Amino acid sequence: MTERLRALLGVLLGLVARLWLATLRVRVIRDPTLERAEGRPWVLAFWHGTQWPLLAWSRRRRTVVLVSHSRDGALQARALRVQGLRVVRGSSSRGGVRGLAALVRAMKQGESDAAFAVDGPRGPRGIVKGGAVLAARATGAVLVPTTGLVRRGFVLRRTWDRFTIAWPFTRVDVVLGAPIDPTRPDARARVERALTTLNTGGSAA
Question: Which of 84, 94, 118, 180 pairs with 131 at a CA distance of 20 to 30 A?
């Protein structure tokens, strides 16, 4: 597949996703302590595979995401731009340092939040990598454990992250946990525990 064709396919996938996501009824559940962090940038931290409802959510301000340099990443980058996200390229396995630096610059220049699938790009599933913590420390942000819960939908079982998609016109929940200080030495462990709790229906407060 040529680069031009891949770019076109990414845009088409993004448009289909945008129409699909517009049908969802989104309920946002926020930890009350997030009010104290309204004046700071947020780094949204979520598990791979839970982001479909997050794409339907009207985010509080512009949000930057880091997408890998792979061929699949090229498609994903185009599709995410259609959803209104700012994309920088890089990953923890290739171009990670430069990608993370570009994301930090974008957050500072645009007064933006960021969103990280913290167990990516290839897993292992449910293990927090360090990129989100580093970005939050560099920008004075707080880490916000986040998940999307799908009540009625289907799971792409052949994918490593078991990506879950809600059926059109159904309700989904976006859950924002209590903010975590990224300067704490146990910040990664706290994010991991909070996400485990949020994704099993509990509270991370």
Answer: 84
- Give which of 51, 48, 46, 53 is closest to 23, Cα–Cα: 53
Burial of 122 from C-beta contacts in 10 A (0-12 / 13-18 / 19+): middle
Residue corresponding to tokens 């599709």: 79
Terminal Cα distance for the chain, rounded? 47
One digit per residue, pLDDT tens: the chain, 205 residues? 677 787 889 999 999 999 999 999 999 999 999 999 999 999 999 999 999 999 999 999 999 999 887 777 788 899 999 999 999 987 655 556 888 999 999 999 888 999 999 987 666 888 999 999 999 999 999 999 999 999 999 999 888 888 999 999 999 999 999 999 999 999 999 999 999 999 987 554 4
Give the largest CA-CA distance in the chain: 48
* C-alpha span between 66 and 152 (Å, rounded): 28
**What pTM does this model have?**
0.91
Q: How far is CA 1 from the centre of its chain?
A: 27
- Phi (first) and psi of residue 32, to 5 degrees: -60, -25
Q: What is the DSSP letter of 130?
A: S
Rounded to an integer, what distance in angstroms lies between the CA atom of residue 53 and that of residue 98? Answer: 29
Task: For the chain, give every domain's residue range.
Answer: 3-198
